[in-house]
Amino acid sequence: MIRVEDIHLSFKSPVLRGVSFEVQEGEIYALIGPGASGKSVLLKTIAGLLRPARGHVWIGDVEVTASDELQMMELRKKIGMLFQNYALFDKTVGENIAFPLERLFDMPEDEIRERVAERLAAVALPGIEDRIPASLSGGQKKRVGVARATIARAPVVLYDEPTAGLDPVTSQKIYNLIRDEQRAQKSTAIVISSDVAGVLTIADRVGMLLNGRLIFEGTVEEARASKHPAVEQFVHGKTEGPL
Amino acid sequence: MKAALLSLPTQVGVAALAIAQQTGGIAIMAAQILRRLLPPKIDRVEFFRNMYRMGVQSLPIVIATAFFTGGIMVIQAAPIVQSFNATHFVGWAALFTTFREIGPLLIALMFNGRVGANNTAELGTMVVTEQIDALRALAIDPITYLVVPRALSMAITMTALVILGDFFAIFGAIVTADVMLDFPPASFMNHGLPMVEFWDFQVGVIKAAFFGVMIGLASCYFGLATTGGAPGVGRAVNRSVVASASGIFITDYLSTFVLA
Prior knowledge:
The complex is a heterodimer.
Chain A: E1 2-10, E2 14-23, E3 28-32, H1 39-46, E4 54-59, E5 62-63, H2 69-76, E6 79-82, H3 93-104, H4 109-122, H5 138-150, E7 156-160, H6 168-185, E8 188-193, H7 196-199, E9 205-210, E10 213-219, H8 220-225, H9 229-236
Parallel strand pairs in A: 3-8, 3-9, 6-7, 7-8
Antiparallel strand pairs in A: 1-2, 1-4, 4-5, 9-10
Helix pairs in contact in A: 3-4, 3-5, 4-5, 5-6
Chain B: H1 2-37, H2 44-54, H3 59-83, H4 90-128, H5 131-137, H6 142-181, H7 185-192, H8 198-224, H9 229-258
């Protein structure tokens, strides 16, 4: 279970202003909201990559916000993360995906190779181990990112805008992939997205951030039926409204 | 006018704070590196990869710099020694200044431009493309994985390049003396080398090690402190090169007193 409690974080101006929510084990939680509402910052805070000025984050029994960098290193072995800009390293696709296993787990090379091939097959990109990320399209890079985020079979996976800049078909394929992964691994996932229509097809519950505040939390049906002006406008993509 | 005058102390204050922040940041980075070296936690693959990139691939530019530095020293010294009818001093003058001062200084500046700037750009790009965050998210310490091998490689390769450069500087000086002054290589060696002490050579090597550490720390610090996307990478490289060059001259100034 992931518990976020009263998170406040500022850079030059406040970004998160008292965000609290819980994600149950084995759940896909969609965090939606317009650009610059604080979604990516919140996700990095949950992963312990940013320190909040106030508030607490727990993953399971471990308080992320009270852990130092060395303790976080242990916890992060149980977290997979997909970054908005892919964050693929200057290595081949195979080396990128194998990287967490090679660095963190004492695993034979053959097994790592098998796991990489299996991951690439799962993201529908079989046999591209030797390609370099620069030669891939945006959608392919995202899928390689998903493969890397899920190769260690982490119980918690965080996805930051997994479909940003992708066409609707590729986007839906990636959402389906996230759902299939979550079901197969029984993992807990938080998916950040501005693409409401797509992410709601796989989410169990939804939270909406606006100006650093969580203005809505509920099921997908509740989100679709919400009469909150900002939620209604954002979920249904209306041009008229407060946003 | 009044506003401009009023803003002057503010500007000085802001600049002083920035320098203090950068110096503090570099000192913290040095402490973080030391902490990981006691006991040594070095990524060997990254270390040897960087030794190759920073050392072996810098050889052509360092050899050219050293060769011409030796030659230039002969050209500069020639009119003076000739006017005193002391041509046999040309070897000593060229080697003494090259070993102690000009060799390490010019090679450090070349190394800063080639290796330091490249290192800052690489780390800065990794920051703005979230690769550093990705490393941390993958439970990999960026200091151990990226900074320690790079800083260590720069200190070692800079020292090694100056030692090698000294030999090419001698070669450049001999060739120039022979071609331009009709001063035969045998005379150059017989008169010049015995007048230069081994300590003169050692001073240059010690300086080179300090310069290497300086470039390593500054280039890694400014790379990891990059903010503001692609333009931020350009700014970080600029700051890194300027800070390293300033650090090289300040260290050189101080060490010249200490090692005199």
